[in-house]
Amino acid sequence: MIKNLIILCFMIVTLFLTASCDLVKRAEIKATQINRYEKISLNLMKENRILQAEINALEFKIEKLKSENQFLSIQLNQKSGRSVASLPPANSSNDQVRFDIYKWSPAQLLTMAETEFEKKNYEKSAQFFKTFLIQYPTSEKIDDRFLFQAGIAAFESGQHYDWALSTMDRLVNDYPESKYFRGAKLWYGLAQLRLGNHKEFFGTVEEFRKKYRNTPEWKILSFRYEEIVQKYKD
Fold this sequence. Notes:
By secondary structure, this protein is mainly alpha-helical. The protein folds into two domains: about 1-85; about 100-234, Tetratricopeptide repeat domain (Serine Threonine Protein Phosphatase 5, Tetratricopeptide repeat), CATH 1.25.40. It has helices at about 1-80, 100, 105-120, 120-135, 145-155, 160-175, 180-195, 200-210, 215-234. The longest helix has about 80 residues, at about 1-80.
């Protein structure tokens, strides 16, 4: 009887161990499957992000090409002495955007502004940026980078220092944590100088001397600093 009991216990233990091993193997197989599925899922997500980025890039290129083609068509008609069919001539010879005629979309205006900026055609760029601000004042595209670029274009055009002041002032007030903050203050001060507002420029120089002396922006101003100080001493 004892022998039978021992045999029974042995069988029970064997069955238990076998079942445990089977459960462990199943768990391992399940974990392997889950890991494989997770890797597949991550790879698919990565591929999806890459595809989406490529789609966004292509959409941007398409919009850019459309805008450039439209602009080139306009320029061609202007050079040939003709205006675009069914469109009246522009009222202002200095208006290089002619929004009332061509009805640029936000994407087209921004693309043209940035394209002309890259080409260093600052007058055209400034006009496209300014038109964007007037026609689409609530656009989410108007951020600190937009304002900074628009302000530089206006300044470098040599014609629109007042535009540079307004955009840089807006950037400073609306985006105090922006990486363009000090740069905006610098260009604001330089625009004041170009407009003959020497006291305002001097205030900017003093602010940089006290707060931002060890910055690249200060290096740009420093060569004028002593000259301005001497002028106001006299």
